[in-house]
Structures are given as C-alpha cells and as structure tokens.
C-alpha cells in the first residue's frame, strides 16, 4: 500500500495535469499567434487563397502538435523538478523533521545542482546556521536548568538544616542567634539568586530597554561605592578613588548601577582583610573609562576566559560567596548600552575590571558646564 502511494506520488510529480494545462495554454497561444501571422503574410505575398478545408486541416495538425509538445514539456519539467527540486526539498524536509524531534545535530550537506541560482544552497546554509544556534541554545538551556537546580538546592538545604536545629529544645541564646543568622543569610542568598535570574532573563529576552538620560557618571560611582561602606569597614579595606569631575554620559543610569554594584561587591567580597580596592574614572579618546581593581584572590587565565558566563565559578573555595550570575549580568548590561568590558588578573595578586563607555549621539563624553 505504501509503495503504491509512493508510486502515485511519483506519477503525479512527473506528470501534473495543472502543469500540462499551463504548458498547453502557453504553447497554444504562442503557436496560434505565429501561425495566424504566417498565414496572413503568406496569403498577401503569394496571392494564393487559402481554402477552409486547408485551414481546418492545418488547425487540427497544429492542435495535435501542441498537445504532444505540451505533454513532452510536462514530462521533461517533471523529471527536472524530481532531480533538481525534489531531491533538495526532501533533504530539507527530512532535516526539519529531525529538528522538530529534538535532534539539533542534523546538518544539510552542500546542495550541488545544475542551476546555481535556484537558491537551495542559500537555504541549506541558513538551515545549518539555525540548527547550530538551536543546538547552542539547547545546551545553554540544559546547563542553565542544571545550574539553577544546584544553586537552589544549596541555600534550601541550609535553611532546612538550620530550621530543624532551631526546633531542638534547650538551645542557648547564642546558638539560637547563630542558627537564625544562618537561615537569614541563606534566605538572602536565595532571594538574590532569584532576582538575578529574573533580571538576566529579562535582559537576554530584550524585555528591558535602555532609558537614556544625561547624568554625572562620577557621582553615580561614588553613590554606589558608598553603599558598601559597611562591608569595607568590616574588613578594614583601603579604598582608593581617582574619579574625574564632570564626566557626563548619555545612557541608562539604572542599568549601569547594576554594573557598578556587582563590580564593587565582587572586589570587596574577594579581597581579604586589610586589602585594597581602587576605583578610577577617566576620559580617554572620547570614552569614559572606569577601572575597578582589587588585591584579592585574583583569577587564573583559564578561568578568565569564562568569567562572564552564567553560573561559572572558577574558584570553588569562594563559590559560597556568589551564584555565578553577577558578571553575566554585567556583561549583558554593557552589551545593551553599547560599551565594552575586559578583565586583567593574576591569581593571588588581584584583578582589574575595565569598563569603556562610548556615549552620546556624537560618540563623545559630555563635559559638565563650568
């Protein structure tokens, strides 16, 4: 039954009534016009009167020729379509079916046809690019789910364990405060993780659009840095600032505050007691350049290549201090506002993050009026 259906499909493919009618009408029109023009010209120039019987005989012969020519053209066109159109279409259709079944490894081999302008090679290239993108997205989705599950389990386990310990009778006040603080810290970490996941999701799905405004970048840096005063005083860190006055930028202040808060938080978090954190702002060739440096644990070269990837934490000894989403947020924000971020670091010495922002309609940093 299946073979019969396939055979009928091939028959319809090679000889289509619709294509036959199209060929017949086209050839009939062309030949009829040519014959009428020829007969009129022949009758005028030769002076011979064409009889009705001759015209009818010629018309019948012409109609038969047209029918045979149309049938031949239809079959030839069907054979051409079968090998030059049908084969690439079947290849693309089979690949699309595998994509729909979740197999993103499928690729369409180069389609070499006699007609280089049929566009199938372009379709094949676009399909392969789409398959590669889908494969990458599927890998990211799988990794994202796995990492989120792992990150959620850790604070939840802490909350569950310390919550159980808080229920024990006879706890001293000191133990109760210690356990409650552990629950609070784990809850805060869980809340920060969920907040960062939502922010990153909105940024990656372009649900957040820059709200451009002109403001003093130096003032914003100082305000964000002062928000961590309690943290640096607790560690007795030396804070150095070299912030130029009057550097105005045209960009989204709220989005950039995420960048500075994450960079300052990481610098203070990963710098040991009595260390140093420095922040500078300078104008360089029409760009505002912000540098955030620390004398913390530093980043090995192999880790630096992945530092802006989601959930990547190269230093597992400090993994409990973050969730691996902060720098991914920073990179996405910098991309959205049209800036650039880079990092230079040495393990055991410290790290320096450099953010370069090119702002304004003319691409220049605006100077505040004096």
Mean of all residue-level pLDDT scores: 76
What is the strand tally? 8
Task: List the uncertain runs.
Answer: 1-12, 311-323, 360-370
Q: What is the radius of gyration computed over CA atoms, rounded to a whole number of angstroms?
A: 37 Å
Structural category:
alpha+beta
Distance between the termini: 88 Å
Which strands sit side by side, in order, in the main sheet?
2-4-5-7-6
**What is the percent of helical residues?**
55-70%
Beta-strand portion reads 5-15%
Helices and strands, in order, run as HHHHHEHHEEHEEHHEEE
Largest sheet: 5 strands, mixed
Q: Supply the number of helical segments.
A: 10
Apparent shape:
elongated
What attributes characterize this protein structure?
disordered N terminus, 10 helices, disordered C terminus, alpha+beta, 59% helix, elongated
What does this structure look like?
The protein is an alpha+beta fold and 370 residues long. Helix content is 59%, strand content 13%. The chain has ten helices and eight strands. The chain has helices at residues 2-14, 17-46, 52-100, 120-166, 173-204, 217-226, 229-235, 253-269, 301-304, 326-336, and strands at residues 213-216, 238-243, 247-251, 276-284, 287-294, 340-346, 350-357, 366-367. Strands 2-4-5-7-6 form a five-stranded mixed beta sheet, with helices on one face. The protein has a three-stranded antiparallel beta sheet with strand order 1-3-8.
């Amino acid at each position: 039954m299946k073979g019969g259906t396939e055979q009928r499909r091939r028959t319809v493919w090679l000889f289509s009534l619709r294509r036959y009618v199209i060929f017949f009408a086209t050839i009939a029109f062309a030949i009829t016009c040519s014959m009428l023009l020829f007969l009129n010209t022949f009758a005028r120039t030769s002076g011979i009167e064409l009889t009705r019987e001759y015209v009818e005989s010629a018309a019948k012969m012409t109609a038969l020729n047209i029918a045979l020519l149309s049938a031949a053209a239809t079959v030839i066109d069907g054979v051409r379509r079968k090998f030059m159109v049908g084969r690439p279409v079947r290849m693309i259709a089979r690949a699309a079916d595998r994509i729909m079944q979740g197999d993103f490894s499928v690729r369409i081999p180069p389609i070499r046809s006699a007609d280089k302008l049929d566009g199938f090679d372009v379709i094949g290239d676009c399909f392969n690019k789409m398959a590669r993108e889908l494969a990458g997205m599927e890998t990211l989705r799988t990794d994202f789910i796995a990492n989120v599950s792992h990150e959620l389990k850790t604070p939840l386990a802490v909350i569950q364990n310390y919550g159980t310990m808080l229920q024990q009778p006879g706890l001293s006040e000191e133990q109760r405060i210690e356990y409650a603080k552990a629950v609070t810290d784990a809850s805060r970490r869980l809340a920060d993780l969920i907040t960062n996941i939502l922010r990153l999701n909105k940024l990656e799905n372009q649900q957040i659009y820059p709200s451009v405004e002109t403001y003093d970048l130096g003032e914003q840096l100082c305000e964000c840095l002062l928000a961590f005063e309690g943290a640096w005083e607790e560690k007795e860190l030396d804070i150095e600032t070299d912030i130029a006055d009057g550097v105005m930028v045209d960009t989204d202040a709220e989005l950039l505050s995420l960048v500075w808060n994450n960079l300052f938080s990481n610098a203070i978090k990963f710098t040991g007691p009595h260390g140093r954190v420095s922040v500078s702002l300078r104008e360089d060739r029409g760009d505002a350049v912000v540098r955030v440096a620390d004398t913390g644990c530093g980043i090995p070269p192999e880790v630096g290549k992945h530092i802006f990837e989601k959930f990547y934490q190269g230093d597992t000894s400090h993994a409990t201090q973050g969730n691996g989403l902060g720098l991914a947020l920073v990179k996405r924000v910098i991309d959205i506002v049209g800036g650039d971020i880079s990092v230079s670091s040495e393990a055991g010495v410290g790290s320096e993050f450099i953010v370069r922002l090119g702002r304004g309609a003319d691409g220049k940093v605006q100077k505040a009026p004096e």
